[in-house]
Design goal:
With about 375 residues, the chain is an alpha/beta fold. The chain is built from 15 helices and six strands. Strands 1-6-5-4-3-2 form a six-stranded mixed sheet, sandwiched between helices.
Amino acid sequence: MARDQDIQSVVNEDTLFQRVSELIEASRKYVNKAIDTAIVYTYFGVGQYIVEYQQQGKSRAEYGKGVLKRLSERLSDTFGKGRSVDTLEKARKFFIVYSNSATLQRVLEHGGISATPQRKSVPSSYVNASDNNRPFTLSWNHYQILMRIENAQARNFYEIEAHKQNWSVRQLQRQVASCLYERLALSRDKDEVMRLANEGQTIEKPSDLLKNPLSLEFLGLKPDASYSESKLESAIIDKLQMFLLELGKGFLFEGRQKRFTFEEDNFYVDLVFYNRLLQCYVLIDLKTDKLTHQDLGQMQMYVNYFDRYVRTDFEKPTIGILLCETKNDALVELTLPQDANIYAQQYALCLPDKVLLQQKLAEWVAEYKEFEENHIESL
C-alpha cells in the first residue's frame, strides 16, 4: 500500500514538474516575443525621428552623417553599447521602407495608428505583444533582411510567409537567397502573382505546389559532378527538414522506396509524402537522366494504384511529381492526358541567379500586360 502511494506521488510530481515547465517555457516565449516587438517599434520610431529631423532643411540632410555620429556617441554614453551609426542608419532605412508599406497601411485603414500628412506615429499601446492588430510581427533581425528587398511585393510576400510559417532568421535568409517569390511567381498567372504579394502562398490546387525550379542547393551535391538517383535520394533524406521547407506548406513525409505489389510484381516509389492542405498523397520519383515517356507512364501507373487501392473516399486524387534536372513540358503534354495529376518539376543544385529570375519575371509581367491591353482593344 505504501509502495503504491510512493509511485502515485512520483507520477504526480512528474506531472507537476511538466506543467510548471510548460508554463515557464510559454512565459519565456511570450516575454521574448514582447521584447522583439518592442525593439522593432523602437527602431521604427528612432528612424522616424531621424528622417523628420533631416527633412527640416537641406543643410541638415547634407551633414546627416555627422549628426548620426554625435547622436550615436551621446546615446552610447547614456544607454551603453548598441547604438552605433550603422544601427541608426538601419533604423532610418527601416522607417523609410515601412512607413508606406502594405504592412503599415493595413493597420492605418483600421484606425490602429494615428496618421497625418506630416507625421505617422506609433502609440505605446502598440508595443504590446498580445495585440493581434499590430503591423510588425517579426523580430528586428527578420526586418533587417526584409528591408533590403527592393521589390515591395516580394518583401510583403516574405514577411507574410515568415510570420505564417514561423521561419527563423536563417530560414528567411535561405528563402530570399533561393528567390522563392520569383520561382513561385513564374509558375502562376498575373492574378496569382498579386495574390502571392497580398496573401502569401496559398495551397488550393496541385499546381500551387510548383516552383520554377525547385532549389536543392542545401544537399551539397555539385552540379558538375556525376551522381546517381539513389545518391540524390539519400541526400534528400539526410536533409529532410530542409527538403520539406523547400517543398512548401502542408507536407508530411511517409516513406522512401515505398513498395507495393501488383500481380506478383513489386514496384517502388522513391518518395511518398502527404499534403494535409490538399488532403492527398504526393508521389515523387527522382530522375537524373533525360526524362522519357516511359518515366511518365510509370508515374501514371503509381498514381493510378494509389488512387484505386490506397486513398480513402474523403481524400483528393493523388499527385505525381517527376523531379528531374531538365524537364520537357512538350513531352509531358504529348504523353499524358490533359487532366492528369502529374507534373515534371525541374530542380537545381545551386542557388538560382536572382537577377536573371527577376528579369524573367519582369518580362513575363510586361508580356501579360501587353496581352491584356491588346485583348481589351480587340473587344
